[in-house]
Amino acid sequence: MADAQYILPNDIGVSSLDCREAFRLLSPTERLYAHHLSRAAWYGGLAVLLQTSPEAPYIYALLSRLFRAQDPDQLRQHALAEGLTEEEYQAFLVYAAGIYSNMGNYKSFGDTKFVPNLPKEKLERVILGSKAAQQNPAEVRSLWQTCGELMFSLEPRLRHLGLGKEGITTYFSGDCTMEDAKLAQDFLDSQNLSAYNTRLFKDVDQDGKPRYEVRLASVLGTESALHSEMTSRLKSYEFRGNHFQVTRGDYAPILQKVVEHLEKAKAYAANSRQEQMLAQYIESFTQGSIEAHKRGSRFWIQDKGPIVESYIGFIESYRDPFGSRGEFEGFVAMVNKAMSAKFECLVASAEQLLKELPWPPAFEKDKFLSPDFTSLDVLTFSGSGIPAGINIPNYDDLRQTEGFKNVSLGNVLAVAYATQREKLTFLEEDDKDLYIRWKGPSFDVQVGLHELLGHGSGKLFVQDEKGAFNFDQETVINPETGEQIQSWYRSGETWDSKFSTIASSYEECRAESVGLYLCLNPQVLEIFGFEGADAEDVIYVNWLNMVRAGLLALEFYTPEVSSWRQAHMQARFVILRVLLEAGEGLVTVTPTTGTDGRPDARVRLDRNKIRSVGKPALERFLRRLQVLKSTGDVAGGRALYEGYAAVTDAPPECFLTLRDTVLLRKESRKLIVQPNTRLEGSEVQLLEYEASAAGLIQSFSERFPEDGPELEEILTQLATADARFWKCPSEAPSGQA
Ligand SMILES: [Zn+2]
């Protein structure tokens, strides 16, 4: 069997994205708008197959054919009859679900390949004996012959995405090297063309000289007679003695379908900004123009706080080995009107709640400004993976002039925390049920407090360019020293510029601590609808979760370089340290041995000591954090924060050893089942699926009810047209030195 890192385990967590409540609260027009945007996103997401590996489009087409002819249950009967064990068939379902979730056979997080965890001969028997194969023997056999070998191959170069000999990519033809990528970037820069929607194909002419094709994604082909800002760019160029040809039409038939649904969505737009935004996206995908996408993004930024939020295009460049080509993604998310009302209530009570925070009034802003925070529930997220939050657009020039949107995706975050009981690590048995019962509600409380009152609280002491202070130097006293304020921010200095490397983690820590501290307030819990024993349970689970999160955070610490890879995780670890330091048995972290005989650990929180021991400890810590921040005391801030963030093997906790346990017990990344929307008459229905690999497969079987077979044909044709470009670098004819 394959190495564990190249398979998805049979017991992989699968969760459903829950957006029922938010969808229910949409108006009929909002639902129609969301539906067509969702269709556009799903169609466009198929381009990711072509952006991932040469074989991914064929694997997708093969799986889709199999499961259209027989659902996972029916195919199971056949598979068992062919001699597969239950485990082997489950491994196949998990593999198929993984292909759909990642839109290809490379993990979207980590970029490593995954292969089916069953013998190839057995899978071949299932495929060639399936109903799909009986219906279309030649096609199914041909698909299997094209992708079967590559599906299983773990040849070193195929194990991960990369350029040339380093790995697999379809952003570049197989013979492209890092030098080619740099040359092409210089060429694009010289022509003021963006790489976001391009791929690079290298060829050799009769004289053995390399020729580069820069191909833009668009509905229209290079020969189109329709004139636009792009047509003059589509031609041959000589650049530093090399031949470049700019063409377009990549993914054309797929983008055609995207455009059709964007046109339909436009009819249900909530305002003219959304209409103009969609018109520009349509222009962008039709012509291959990133400039049009930027214009669309400008309208998008100006469309503040819409009920139905979306973004679509070639957005994130993580998976281009050179880092400048964007992977297609499209999402549609909705304001959860019920949750927003609670958050608004919190903002309305801010003036009063901020007084509860453990610092003198002079350290608080003169007037509370609610931070720009939106929590949305995702209806659709197409592409290779679903993030828990977004901060876009990525165009730097737009971010400078127009700003950006920072959105938290509430139901995605909820999935990340929704763990089945048997997979709930590091908790005592008697805590597990309570944790599962209250994790969601306590998380809502913590998010609201963290984002609104956490990031929204506290004042920085500033002296402006004219020398004026925004605080009274005579009367304001530093509660830590009992003296007047000795340091502050001078004109031009900011929190980020002063605290640089620790700024974001420190601020996350402050916001998380505010959340823990203020959740003890009955008024806050009442806003979220909790009283009495329920309110006490919410508090307990919120604190317990933070303690557990602090332990889990160790995954993001790299001992080799003694550094944290993730600001938010570091912040949680710091809070765990603070609560441990409070002593009196408030929190304990104990190494144990699991039932499998391997290292394990338990975290405990004494719920009777939260107010008597935890609260005062948090109060002292929070006051110090705020005072050091307000006064711009970098040296003091670093000493405090880095002290808590240090990970050592010192007893009693031995965190470095615990880190190994955390890595050992780490749950693999969950698969997420998304719903479909369907237009019935003039009404949009939400179709939901079971949280299992079979449910995920079913959701994809029903995703393209009108044109599934046509799409598979399109994908394999597009893949075949470029197949000659993916030959191994060693076989490539040598170009000019
Ligand atoms: Zn935050």
TrEMBL record:
What Pfam family is a match, any one? Answer: Peptidase_M49
Q: How is the cofactor bound?
A: Binds 1 zinc ion per subunit.
Which amino acids does the record list as binding Zn(2+)?
A: H450, H455, E508
The cofactor required is: Zn(2+)
Highest taxon of source: Eukaryota
Q: Where is this protein found?
A: Cytoplasm
Q: Which UniProt keywords apply?
A: Acetylation, Aminopeptidase, Cytoplasm, Hydrolase, Metal-binding, Metalloprotease, Protease, Zinc
Task: List the GO cellular component terms.
Answer: cytoplasm
A biological process term (GO) from this entry: proteolysis
Q: Which InterPro entries match?
A: Dipeptidyl-peptase3, Peptidase_M49
The UniProt record lists the keyword Lipoprotein:
no
Q: Does the keyword Ribonucleoprotein apply?
A: no
Annotated family = Belongs to the peptidase M49 family.
What is the name of this protein?
Dipeptidyl peptidase 3
Organism expressing this protein natively: Panthera pardus
